[in-house]
Amino acid sequence: GEDVEQSLFLSVREGDSSVINCTYTDSSSTYLYWYKQEPGAGLQLLTYIFSNMDMKQDQRLTVLLNKKDKHLSLRIADTQTGDSAIYFCAESLMTTDSWGKLQFGAGTQVVVTP
Amino acid sequence: DGGITQSPKYLFRKEGQNVTLSCEQNLNHDAMYWYRQDPGQGLRLIYYSQIVNDFQKGDIAEGYSVSREKKESFPLTVTSAQKNPTAFYLCASNSGTALQPQHFGDGTRLSIL
């Protein structure tokens, strides 16, 4: 199957860490992506991880992957008001029929409060 | 600066009218994609093109058409057959393999008059 699920909303206080969760169902080797969307804008690629990795860190962003549970998370350290946005988890399918196809979750609205 | 340019940013369609959304990229990417975004939903794939003069239907192609006459351009036409066209449309591109991330334009918001 090709389903990516995310929680729809997260509220976090400025300076705290945010953790956004995502589950996927396809068991093929794949890339998993996190995109950020600010109001009225396109999607900005934040980071991505290949399914044979457990963790990837990039400045304030940490991606954790539990392949057994098909669970992906994005942790944002020291969350700032500029981090308020919708965050999309997406899975890239490597099968021939799904060449280059991204399967998106519905997005998590993150609201950062002072 | 390399990137993807979508135009117009806002577009209004009258009943029975076809409208065309522009997408241009100067990233030298082989593959280009069109997605539709509705509130509270993820992106859904309309059409994609892996190479010039070739394109494939995505998950929701009905009521839409595309062309790929040049590598840098992938226009999307929303036809009168698309009965619910109000949405945010996003164009993306990548170097053409499933391993490469897709990069997105800033989107076109289409509304019905």
What does this protein structure show overall?
The complex is a heterodimer of chains A (114) and B (113). Chain A is mainly β. Helix content of chain A is 0%, strand content 58%. In chain A, strands 2, 4, 5, 9, 10 and 11 form a six-stranded mixed β-sheet that branches. In chain A, strands 1-3-8-7-6 form a five-stranded antiparallel β-sheet, with no helix packed on it. The model of chain A has no long low-confidence stretch (mean pLDDT 90). Chain B has 113 residues and is an all-beta fold. In chain B, strand 4 and strand 5 form a beta hairpin. Classes of the chains: A mainly beta (114), B mainly beta (113). At the A-B interface, strand 4, strand 5, strand 9 and strand 10 of A face strand 5, strand 9 and strand 10 of B.
Spans of chain B of at least 5 consecutive residues whose pLDDT stays below 50 are none
Question: Low-confidence spans of chain A: pLDDT under 50, at least 5 residues?
Answer: none
Total count of strands of chain A: 11
| Approximate helicity band of chain B | under 10%
The helix fraction of chain A, in percent, is under 10%
| Sheet/helix structural class of chain B | mainly beta
Question: Could you list some keywords that capture this structure?
Answer:
heterodimer; A: 114 residues; mainly beta; six-stranded mixed sheet; five-stranded antiparallel sheet; 0% helix; B: 113 residues; seven-stranded mixed sheet; four-stranded antiparallel sheet; 50% strand; globular
